[in-house]
């Protein structure tokens, strides 16, 4: 039994460290831990350390989450506990709407680094496309990138026209676009645009904040594969070439979310999930968000 457990852990470790290559040559894990709405303090410290123990190497936070200090603590403690170095991790944060603008975005980046206790971020994102502000913020991200202070830059919650704006105004294409994405919001048009332009799509709220965990279509697929509904959804993301950051604070759920590399959905399975799309959001509409 112990040998089987060790084999499972090794398999998860190896696959959790599988990476995609962004258009600037930086590599990014396909699966990471999201910490949206995870309370600052022991809860998020434990989640980060648990993820690192299981084999996760990507942690995604944001200034507005209010937990960057504890995320940094979890990273430091996890590195010490598991003999990891900073270059083995991929850490993402985001600039919040109130700080969008050239100088204010650079200051926000420095504030996030200080809270995290890090010398650099692997990925820094504009959190939302606030009208009239996101282009200037993108210029600030380009400056940070050109100065070598961040490994990769990107955006979050950008629709196609937002992406076109920053691509027209800037000199660097976003490397990542992180959007709400799940079976009821497949984001096919955005995904196609990103693939065409070499922008890596990343899913937040891949489990629709738990609202899909009793869906009959997904339940039937999960039973067929001997997996959970969450694992089927995350596997669907992976097979679409989408980086995914499911959130959990419980170690057994973090482990379950990482255990998606030992099965494959068929073309029919993928089509069945694709057909569920309703363009239904649980988060704000980027074009109609009261900032």
UniProtKB/TrEMBL annotation:
Q: Which domain of life is it from?
A: Bacteria
Q: What class of enzyme is it?
A: oxidoreductase
EC assignment:
1.-.-.-
The answer, when asked if Oxidoreductase is one of the entry's keywords, is yes
Tell me one Pfam family matched here. Answer: Aldo_ket_red
Entry-linked PROSITE patterns: ALDOKETO_REDUCTASE_1, ALDOKETO_REDUCTASE_2, ALDOKETO_REDUCTASE_3
**SUPFAM superfamilies this protein is in?**
NAD(P)-linked oxidoreductase
Give the NADP-dependent oxidoreductase domain ranges: 32-277
Classification via InterPro entries: AKR (IPR020471), AKR5G (IPR044500), Aldo/ket_reductase_CS (IPR018170), NAD(P)_OxRdtase_dom_sf (IPR036812), NADP_OxRdtase_dom (IPR023210)
Q: Which residues form the signal peptide?
A: none
GO molecular function terms attached to this record? oxidoreductase activity
Recite the UniProt keywords alphabetically. Answer: NADP, Oxidoreductase
Q: What PANTHER family does this protein's entry cite?
A: 2,5-DIKETO-D-GLUCONIC ACID REDUCTASE, NADP-DEPENDENT OXIDOREDUCTASE DOMAIN-CONTAINING PROTEIN
**Family label:** Belongs to the aldo/keto reductase family.
| Protein's name according to its UniProt entry | Oxidoreductase YtbE
Species of origin = Paenibacillus allorhizoplanae
- Which gene name belongs to this protein? ytbE
């Amino acid at each position: 039994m112990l040998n089987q457990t060790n084999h499972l852990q090794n398999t998860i470790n190896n696959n959790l460290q599988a990476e995609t290559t962004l258009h600037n040559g930086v590599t990014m894990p396909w699966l990471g831990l999201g910490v949206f709405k995870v309370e600052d303090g022991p809860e998020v410290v434990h989640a980060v350390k648990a993820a690192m123990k299981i084999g996760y190497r990507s942690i995604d936070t944001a200034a507005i989450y209010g937990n960057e200090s504890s995320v940094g603590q979890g990273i430091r403690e996890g590195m010490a506990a598991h003999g990891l170095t900073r270059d083995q991790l991929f850490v993402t944060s985001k600039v919040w709407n109130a700080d969008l603008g050239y100088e204010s975005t650079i200051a926000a980046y420095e504030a996030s680094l200080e809270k995290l206790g890090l010398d650099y971020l692997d990925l820094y994102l504009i959190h939302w496309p606030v009208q009239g502000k996101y282009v200037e913020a993108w210029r600030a991200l380009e400056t940070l990138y050109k100065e070598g202070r961040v490994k990769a830059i990107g955006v979050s919650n950008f629709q196609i026209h937002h992406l076109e704006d920053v691509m027209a105004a800037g000199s660097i294409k976003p490397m990542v676009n992180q959007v709400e994405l799940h079976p009821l919001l497949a984001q096919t048009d955005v995904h196609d645009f990103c693939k065409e332009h070499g922008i890596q799509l990343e899913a937040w709220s891949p489990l629709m904040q738990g609202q899909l965990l009793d869906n009959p279509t997904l339940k039937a697929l999960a039973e067929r594969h001997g997996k959970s509904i969450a694992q089927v959804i995350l596997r669907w993301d992976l097979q679409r070439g989408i980086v995914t950051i499911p959130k959990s604070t419980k170690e057994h759920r973090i482990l379950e979310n990482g255990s998606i590399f030992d099965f494959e959905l068929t073309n029919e399975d993928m089509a069945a999930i694709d057909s569920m799309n309703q363009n239904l959001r649980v988060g704000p509409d980027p074009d109609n968000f009261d900032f």
